[in-house]
Amino acid sequence: MFVSLVLAILAAVLVFIFVRSMQPTVPVVVAQKNISVGKEITPDDVAIKNYPSSAVFPSTAKSLKEVVGKTVAFGPVLQGEVVRTEHLTTAGSLLSTLRTFAPEKKWSAVELPPDTSLGMKGLRRGDKVNVYGEVAEGETAVVKHIADAVVLNVPEEEDEIKQFIIAVPEEVVSVVAGIAVRGQKAVVVLPSAEDKGA
């Protein structure tokens, strides 16, 4: 009884291997590591593997030249994941990051003045923040909320110039840009959980 069960399992495995070997395969591009949004793909990031043709989508990249030099957009590509054309753009790193994280099409990327909110070390790309800055009211300047924003770039320790780049709606671009142009100060504020849900 036991021997016949083992032989039946062995026969099933052999049939599965035989059937699988008869399926045609095609080369596809697979991520060798996690590739984040805004990163330009290099040959070290990807590899070619053979997949059964029945499991390959029409948009699947099938050669390295289709992906190397292009930028990841609209979400990261995880290690082991097949790279598809909808993951990629020929736009630059910042533009692809803007297109990925900005909630609306009519948002623009704006840099804040150097050394703005450098204590906000926990911020990451995609975080929603509020921006406060000096606004002229008559002959005085007052600090006011100027924009709801999305973080696109956070300054790194090794960066010579430490600046946040944020996405803001087009109607406040000139106000936010004016702060940097006039050399004024701005503050990035992380909203509370209640604000995020509102």
Q: How would the blueprint of this fold be written?
A:
Elements: H1 2-22, E1 25-31, E2 46-52, E3 71-72, E4 88-89, H2 93-101, E5 107-111, E6 128-137, E7 140-153, E8 165-169, H3 173-181, E9 186-189, H4 193-197
Antiparallel strand pairs: 1-2, 3-4, 5-8, 6-7, 6-9, 7-8
Could you please describe the fold and organization of this structure?
This protein is α+β, with helices and mostly antiparallel strands and 198 residues long. It folds into 2 domains: 25-94, Type Iii Antifreeze Protein Isoform Hplc 12; 102-197. Helix content is 22%, strand content 28%. The radius of gyration is 25 Å and the shape is elongated. 24% of the residues are buried.
